Amino acid sequence: MASNKAPERRASIGAQRNPASEEAILTAAAEILAEGGFGAFSIEAVARRAKAGKPTIYRWWPSKAALLLDVYQRQKTFDAQPDTGDVERDLAIFLKSLLSFWAEGPQGNIFRSIIAEAQSDPAAEKALSDYAADRRIHTGEIIRRAQERGQVPAETDASLLAETIAGFAWGRLLTGNANSPPEELERAVHQMVAGIIRP
Amino acid sequence: MASNKAPERRASIGAQRNPASEEAILTAAAEILAEGGFGAFSIEAVARRAKAGKPTIYRWWPSKAALLLDVYQRQKTFDAQPDTGDVERDLAIFLKSLLSFWAEGPQGNIFRSIIAEAQSDPAAEKALSDYAADRRIHTGEIIRRAQERGQVPAETDASLLAETIAGFAWGRLLTGNANSPPEELERAVHQMVAGIIRP
User: Fold this and answer.
1) Which one of A105, A150, B1, B62 has the minimum C-beta count within 10 Å?
2) Does B197 touch chain A (CB under 8 A)?
3) Domains of chain B: which residue ranges?
4) Tell me, what's the pLDDT at B6?
């Protein structure tokens, strides 16, 4: 689950956080997003609502996107690492869960805002790129487990496959097509996993 | 080549265009982007420079993103449909050419701006989604040719594979990683095409 990894990522930022203030800031940020969407979201508005100083927020989250990513991750409650014993089925569950999660709640729009931010703000780009790398490791576990079972060859690059699936999901989200037919997603994963070249 | 397809797409918009004005508008838009980037780009600025009316521009391009997409497509000069006789090699050339094209000139940033626009403007989202669908047909031709040769089974969904490759490329671009090692891209395409399941 994404939230289990958060403390690890935070440690790398360096600045020590006060858990109560951190909680107040993340809650304020989530409430502002839920009430007013991305348009209403600013570090200033979060600081006011959380009764925190802007410098404190910036010390812990170097960009608006970094704060958004933490809010987003806390709300991430879908099945990101299924383990059915079959790699194709696991990856299909992952892709379908991710897109449903984006399509059905506010999180899809939050993540779209983060990606949009990253196109003009280098700090946001760095936060997004680090986040995506972290997610590839996480999704790659599905493939590494299949390698341990002998279902997938050892030379398969788990990170590249995880990136392929994530890229497909991002493409759907960013074109307004997160709400995808499950059987189409299963077919997409089948092709990624089983290949298309005639044996 | 992308520009060959443009008249077809334009016909579907419905409003008849005056070729000289259209040329002036597209040239003005490209110059503004080259000089000031996306921050300097607005329909107003394009109208002023092209000596055209804003209503004319909006009649031909329903959103800023639609105009940006036409500018972007006119500058697209990479090898989008290689034909070496081998589907894996063709798709690898396509992916490497696309990412180099994005990394080496201003077009990567233009396309990033279009995607960012599409995250908050429904007209931009529609323009991007239509554009992506059109590109899938175009890239899918590589796979359909391989199906005619018998290299790829008839039941392979060419559009889904084209979408998979495009999604991978978008992910690299949007995280600031368009400048990718060619051998990594080749490995990614190899996995997409040859599959990962142990036979």
Assistant:
1) A150
2) yes
3) 2-74, 87-194
4) 39
